Amino acid sequence: MQAIYLDHAATTPIHPDVLKVVVETMEEHFGNPSSVHSYGRKARQILDKARMTAAKSIGASDKDIIFTSGGTEADNLALIGVAEANKNKGNHIITTKIEHHATLHAAEKLEKEGYHVTYLDVQENGTIDIEQLKASLTDDTILVSVMMVNNETGVIQPIEAIGQLLEQHQAYFHTDAVQAYGLLPINVKELKVDLLTVSSHKINGPKGVGFLYVHPDVKMTAQQYGGEQERKRRPGTENVAGIAGFAKAIEIAAEKQQERMQQYKHYRTLFLEQLEKSAIDFSINGTESERVANIVNISFPGANVEQLLTNFDLSGIAASSGSACTAGSVEPSHVLTAMFSENNPCTTNSIRFSFGLANNEENVVTAAEKVGQIVQRLTK
């Protein structure tokens, strides 16, 4: 049985060219980039080049890039670091009910410490209401955090409109761009964002690496203690091999962006057409909004997540009930609960399929055929 991977929103297979860079760097350039000798200087050169690659990809300066251990650390640093450094200006933070748990749990921690957090609703199409955001802003608001693309539904949020709204407000604007990066064009100046989160393993790079873009005017408190790496904002010896691989993945993603978007759109169309041929009952969550091409979240009435995922896995199909952090959990999706309601069947019968490097036309169609057969059997 040929296994088919349809969970690229959780993580992606490493690109062969990226793997070569990681191994080569580990073998040949193992120096500490903080060391002054030749080994250290070579590692520093690799680090500096990678930082410029990362910065260029979002229209930023290399001085504004902080390498982290991934998206979670970057989100934590953005929320907690900014909140602690700016509490003299206010204690109000605005985010949404559909954020990744890296953001939501950081916000909950801040609430316990006395900060006031507003969690914006989303409409049934999965997007926030700009008017609600506008009404939620106060003189005490110091940070607004809204993800660019939702990791469960693929719905794109109106980041540019939010940036324009906040331009004359003291609040900093953070966006978690983990699911958008490499697929959508991103320019921090045009979007008017102050902080932006990216993760390597979502774009066929190594795990354990990410970056946080921080506008030079943003005041932020480091959340770790140690050396003076990353301009004193994130201490610890940098993961040079991982960062080198990340930079290679960024280059490939930039080069292949348009091609990948068209390819994933084609895969999604093939997948949905085959499901329709199976004559099963299904609907797409977030279908009334703009979405990225590689993610589709489908509700199967009469089925439930646990049954579906178990049977898919037994048939060699890897999919997810939502974010990677809750994969395997039978709890209702917090994203779909926010979109519909707590008791809506969609919250416990929906599956996320996400396309990427591990796919081709043949395995996408085969997967859809198997999904159709399984759903038919489970919903008889």
From TrEMBL:
One of its GO terms (molecular function) is iron-sulfur cluster binding. It is an enzyme of class 2 (transferase). Its EC number is 2.8.1.7. It holds the Pfam family Aminotran_5. SUPFAM superfamilies: PLP-dependent transferases (SSF53383). It catalyses: (sulfur carrier)-H + L-cysteine = (sulfur carrier)-SH + L-alanine. Residues 4-364 form the Aminotransferase class V domain. Keywords: Iron, Iron-sulfur, Metal-binding, Pyridoxal phosphate, Transferase. Its cofactor is pyridoxal 5'-phosphate. It comes from the Bacteria. Belongs to the class-V pyridoxal-phosphate-dependent aminotransferase family. NifS/IscS subfamily. This is cysteine desulfurase. It comes from Gracilibacillus oryzae.
